[in-house]
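FYI - complex with zinc ion, inputs then prediction.
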Amino acid sequence: MISNSQKKLAAVVGSLFLSGILFTDPSVQAQTAAKPIDWAAYQDQAVDLTRKYLRINTSNPPGNEIAAAKFFKAICDKEGIQSEIFEYQPGRANIIARLKGNGSKRPIILLSHTDVVTADPKAWRVDPFSADIVEGSIYGRGALDMKSQGLLQLMTVIILARERAPLSRDVIFLATADEEVKDEGSLWMIANKADLFKNAEYLLTEGGDSLLAEGKVKFVGIDVAEKAPFWLRLKATGQPGHGSRPIADSAPNRLVRAMARILAYEPPIKLLPAVEKFFKDVAPLQPEPMRSKFANIRESLKNSGFAQELAGQREYGYLLRNTISLTMMGGSKQTNVIPNEATCDLDVRLLPGEKPEEFLATLKRVIDDPRIQIENTNTFKPPNSSSDNTELFQIITSVAKTYHPEAVITTKMLSGYTESQLYRQLGIISYGWAPIYTTTEENAGVHGNNERITVKNIREGIREFYEVVSQIAR
Ligand SMILES: [Zn+2]
């Protein structure tokens, strides 16, 4: 995924106090099948398969995800689970596997990407494709993003099949190529094979947020919404000349005036339901007076001073409105030359529900200079969200609460985006969530060095994930 806000909550929940609720033994909830599940054997298998999967080098570029697809296919074949590989380009492949339900409910998709970002072995403690276990953690590129999650998904399908769990809906395992670069794997599936999964009701993939501290899960954020990048380039043109003779309305001068107007502009605050829920849920973690203000966030934001203050905070501002970051500037290559062209690039991120053309019209009014040209420089990904008022959201919340009674469990809107944005467009309710709980330090391994996951997390995560999927598919 595009690494983004995961660390931000560390500060928020730093002040969390442990609640006095007694811990409930998860084994009581986990025994949903007719006979008790032999978890130890599945847990051993999960750790073993995670390590094997991490040893497959699917660094993208070039990807070579066919190796991962074949790895999954061999396991599915052995387990008697129907699966099919789609090699859409030499070496680039997706795999889909399916457990049939009785059809009384629509399918759920367990989606992961099989590619990983590149890794510089020199900066790692161990080889990034060794899957060595050091001090209780399995090291490997993809250990968090997102091979461990893909493996938990596959193990869940295996356990459902072996335990002959009753299924009212199909459980679809979908592992795609190229998420880290261009989403070509998922885009190809949606363009060519959507009939295999487009009637799904639910989808689970990456994007959730968590915080583990002092050995306890303190925060579980379920990704229900994502902002959309809408990148813009502004271009001013004007008369060129020698720097010794200033030109009042030169391209750089006009561009800087436009930029100043943009910087002074405050996009309006809009409180989306998922964001309102987030503020209310994290309110108890705040010291006063923020605690009361967060608890009544809709009311609090009517105070323009408070709204201004909150929107100005890096941690919260992006939740409340469309944002504009000035990132690139270009003009003359020489100090004594006034160029005939000056440019700047804006990384604009729109809230779910926003229309890019409306934002553009507003920006043009703000700039108030028809001679500044504006062009969109990225492939637009629509801002998107899924309701949290669903059976699946409720199951995730209640299972997570059972396993981690002291955790705050809430909605999360990402400032970046995942493949959920592609599947939400098909009308599938998509959430970013997995029972993978990391410390702030471990989180730095995502797209960074020494990416790792604890063996404990794999062993415990498999039970929690199975619990959620078996309940929603029951
Ligand atoms: Zn990812």
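The domain at 228-376 is CATH 3.30.70.360 (Alpha-Beta Plaits). Residues 1, 113, 145-146, 179, 206 surround zinc ion (CB under 6 Å).
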